[in-house]
Amino acid sequence: MRLPRLVVVTDRTQAAGPLADVVTAAVDAGARAVLLRDRDLAEDDRAALTADLRAVLDPVGGLLVVAGATGDAVHLAAAEPFPAVRPRLVGRSCHSAAELTRAREEGCDWAFLSPVAPTASKPGYGPALGVEGFARLASLGPPPYALGGVVPADVPALLAAGAHGVAVMGPVMRDPSVVREYLTALGP
């Protein structure tokens, strides 16, 4: 599978409305990959939300990745153990050279490398890498997505620095129409 250039990361605490509605608007704006991150939901609620998001993404051939779950496409936290049975697609959050190397050695399909810029969505990680720091680390792991404080104007420099694409949470959760700006910046 060809990895998408934009991954929308969910956070219902920042969402401009019900999460399924925000994701629907992001998909309507052109998003084709979504990471369901909301790990704090009760298991039944998370399963229901997963089904709702699949119903939004499946008709457009989109990809739903679920954080820390078993299934077809999963995304792991930096310290989370690799699944005993490898999912079809698996990514990992990374913040350092060692974490990127681990993700590459595990055979991850992608890595989220963060934080690129200071962000209230991801406190406690840092300092921010900036474009230069991202460039120094980008080749150490699987195809990297820039995450954390990335705005559309940053995208060309991050692509030049080795980013496969960008993962965006806060801006899309607050205004899903911004997906169009990210996709324009990412190009064809």
TrEMBL record:
Q: Where is the Thiamine phosphate synthase/TenI domain?
A: 6-170
**Which residues does UniProt call coiled coil?**
none
Q: Which SUPFAM superfamilies match?
A: Thiamin phosphate synthase
Q: Which InterPro entries match?
A: Aldolase_TIM, ThiamineP_synth_sf, ThiamineP_synth_TenI
Pathway membership? Cofactor biosynthesis; thiamine diphosphate biosynthesis
Please provide the record's keywords in A-Z order.
Thiamine biosynthesis
Task: Name the domain of life this protein comes from.
Answer: Bacteria
Q: What does this protein do?
A: Condenses 4-methyl-5-(beta-hydroxyethyl)thiazole monophosphate (THZ-P) and 2-methyl-4-amino-5-hydroxymethyl pyrimidine pyrophosphate (HMP-PP) to form thiamine monophosphate (TMP).
PANTHER family for the chain: THIAMINE-PHOSPHATE PYROPHOSPHORYLASE, THIAMINE-PHOSPHATE SYNTHASE
Q: What is this protein called?
A: Thiamine phosphate synthase
Query: Which species is this record about?
Result: Geodermatophilus maliterrae
